[in-house]
Design a protein that fits this description.
The protein is α/β, with parallel strands linked by helices and 501 residues long. The chain has 20 helices and six strands. The protein has a four-stranded mixed beta sheet. Strands 1-2 form a two-stranded antiparallel ribbon. The protein is elongated, with a radius of gyration of 29 Å. It starts with 15 loop residues before the first helix and ends in an 8-residue tail after the last helix. The relative contact order is 0.16.
Length: 501
């Protein structure tokens, strides 16, 4: 079977078999996995602190999830590990009930994700508008950048030239070659500079203790009672929802970047299984990591499950076997990588004056609202959900004005005909009853629905109300021109909604 790869920059699909047959592609995948593993370490430690657990819990979770999702996930090259969104959700459980309850919450959240995946929740992704997706991407870029600022405040002055040097390397090195990922070069060179010149700057080791042993299988010590379910259930449900939303949005983003398709249903239940395994091995759970995925896919050019699998393997090797080496990596190098990822992630085209001039104002408003809500809440899931709500409200408001009613009276004045044009649903049918002249109309009224369609009970109730009002004035109403679907829907609900009362 010939390789699927059809582009020198790796934009199109590459299979694991293709990578194993090509030393160049395999090298790219291996090095990408190494870069992601290095970037995962401080992130996992930071998220552990947010969740209130030992850094080892976050690191073990990242290892288990990365390896598991490499086999189970529906989106090749996407990185899953411990994340800030999940850490925020489960932090109250750790604070109030301890580690065993937290692990039980992660396991239950994973079970819920498996159930939602098998029920086809991934299909709901089609209801997320493009404007929300653009807002999600831009908000992600802003959050990645903001998350690095704490590493640039109240630090030795040498941090700043190191970050600038790292950014220059990340910008210039790809112009020379893409065989070796620029982030890896930046990390290695800056670490060498810091060690050789004994520069005193914050390092990975300053972020927290690294584990010295492998994770092991354990069962959370919690009573199997309804009381326990009442404690962990709400948090597990929130974990499942937040994790799935971020993972599916990230998968769609990678689909667009790589011009390939992925199985969102498989990704959904795969995330669930990965979380169950994470909890059983003492991890805090997680979901797709957008920043690390961008490092893997966009900055390093990875395209297969090999990079995801090796990211997990390298992470474990680095923290357990080479912990002393990893500990001396300057945080400035990782900050430079994440800032570059932020710049590469942001959709700069979406804010160009020429784009804003062509784009409908409602679309721009949705994009801005998604970015603002996400940045304010520091939660991508909340931002996306509220962005979809804003998009739905603006859409309903816009479509509501598309429905018109045209009135004509017969030459002999005995019949009034109303032609309804447009789609009738709750937003457009609410003021439908106000567009009829009940007192002035003759005894016979015809409502022509040939150019309209009834979508919900609100519209049927509105038509019933119109008929009832005319009957009170002694007029008869005939509704004509309904299509088959509207006729069946109207016939089933008409007269039973209390419209005239």
């Amino acid at each position: 079977m010939p390789p699927v790869l059809t582009s020198t920059d790796g934009r199109f699909a590459t299979s694991v078999r293709d990578a194993l047959r090509s030393p160049r592609l395999l090298t790219r995948e291996v090095l990408a996995g190494l870069v992601v593993a290095l970037a995962l370490i401080p992130e996992a430690i930071a998220f552990s602190i947010i969740a209130g657990v030992d850094p080892r819990v976050g690191l073990f979770s990242s290892f288990v999830m990365a390896v598991a999702i490499a086999f189970l996930g529906g989106r090749p090259a996407m990185i899953s590990a411990a994340t800030g969104a999940v850490a925020l959700v489960i932090a109250p459980v750790m604070r109030d009930h301890g580690l065993d309850y937290l692990l039980a919450t992660v396991i239950l959240g994973g079970v819920i994700q498996v159930a939602l995946g098998l029920l086809g929740v991934a299909k709901l992704m089609r209801f997320i508008p493009r404007s929300v997706m653009v807002g999600f991407v831009n908000a992600l870029a802003v959050l990645i950048f903001l998350s690095q600022l704490e590493q640039l405040v109240d630090v030795p002055w040498m941090v700043y030239p190191l970050v600038i040097a790292g950014l220059l390397l990340l910008w210039l090195f790809p112009k020379l070659t893409r065989v070796i990922p620029a982030p890896l070069v930046a990390i290695v060179l800056l670490t060498a500079v810091v060690v050789v010149f004994a520069i005193d700057v914050p390092t990975v080791g300053d972020q927290g203790a690294l584990p010295e042993s492998l994770p092991f299988l354990l069962i959370p010590n919690v009573p199997l009672t309804l009381e326990t379910l009442g404690i962990i259930g709400p948090y597990a449900l929130a974990l499942a929802a937040v994790g799935l939303l971020e993972s599916l949005m990230t998968a769609k983003l990678v689909d667009d970047i790589t011009d390939t398709r992925s199985s969102k249903t498989r990704e959904s239940w795969g995330q669930g299984v990965a979380n169950v395994l994470s909890g059983l091995f003492g991890g805090m759970g997680g979901c797709a990591m957008i920043g690390q995925t961008m490092i893997n896919v966009k900055a390093s050019g990875a395209r297969t499950r090999i990079s995801t699998f090796l990211a997990g393997v390298f992470l474990l090797i680095l923290v357990v076997v080479l912990g002393d080496v990893v500990a001396i990596i300057p945080m400035a190098a990782l900050v430079a990588v994440m800032i570059m990822v932020s710049a590469l992630t942001f959709d700069w085209h979406s804010i160009l004056p020429s784009t804003l001039k062509r784009m409908p104002k409602s679309e721009t408003a949705v994009m801005v609202a998604t970015v603002a809500l996400t940045v304010i809440t520091h939660n991508l899931a909340i931002g996306v959900i509220l962005g979809v709500v804003v998009a739905a409200v603006l859409f309903a408001r816009r479509v509501a004005h598309f429905t018109t009613v045209e009135r004509t009276v017969s030459a002999d004045g005995t019949e009034a005909r109303y032609t309804v044009v447009g789609e009738l649903f709750f937003a457009s049918s609410n003021d439908l009853t106000t567009q009829f002249e009940y007192v002035a109309d003759p005894p016979r009224v015809v409502i022509d629905m040939t150019r309209s369609h009834v979508w919900d009970a609100s519209s049927v109730a509105a038509l019933d109300a119109i008929t009832t009002k005319y009957e009170r004035h002694g007029a008869t109403v005939e509704i004509i021109g309904m299509n088959d679907a509207t006729t069946r829907f109207h016939g089933r609900l008409s007269g039973g909604l209390g419209a005239g009362h």
